[in-house]
Amino acid sequence: DGGITQSPKYLFRKEGQNVTLSCEQNLNHDAMYWYRQDPGQGLRLIYYSQIVNDFQKGDIAEGYSVSREKKESFPLTVTSAQKNPTAFYLCASRRRGGGGASSNEQFFGPGTRLTVL
Amino acid sequence: AQSVTQPDIHITVSEGASLELRCNYSYGATPYLFWYVQSPGQGLQLLLKYFSGDTLVQGIKGFEAEFKRSQSSFNLRKPSVHWSDAAEYFCAVGAGGSQGNLIFGKGTKLSVKP
Lengths: 117, 114
Fold this sequence. Notes:
Strand content of chain A: over 45%
Structural class of chain A: mainly beta
Largest sheet of chain A: 7 strands, mixed
Radius of gyration of chain A: 14 Å
Helix content of chain B: under 10%
Oligomer: heterodimer
Strand content of chain B: over 45%
């Protein structure tokens, strides 16, 4: 079955450490997204990528970095510069091209919960 | 700038009762509109979407939503709620442009009383 996988499901980080969250999709989607979710805040966009080897900052990119070396993979690194990284992180992907709501529909992974100790 | 407002943070309904979750958006043109559902600790699942055409949209799990341009609303409805519908619901609007980004509301948490 096609879908999006995120690993690990739970991640614990010590102060000052960088950690990397994995996101893989086998939907053959061109675009991928990372969101941060905090209680009562909805989803906030961290980074997005429309094609391989290209990505753009979202609304809250500070303290995060990404890479897009393969179409299937879009890992997110939470750096020590992110002062409050404890949150639920969601990865999504989207089929580009065509028109209408279907081309804007995003498919989501199951999420990674990051906790800073 | 585009925005989405979900006025209700938390709603409680009895099982079998009807449900309406409100969503208002701000967008200059005809928007792409979506409703997603999230169970605790899980990702988001698409319930339904609207782009054009019939303003009453049918989705999965018995949900429907109605697009009202004059009210800038896209409210989600279900005639009879089941206990398994307890979850958080997010309304989203397509931000336009080729990026395909979505702007999400802050969500409405639905609790279902037996």
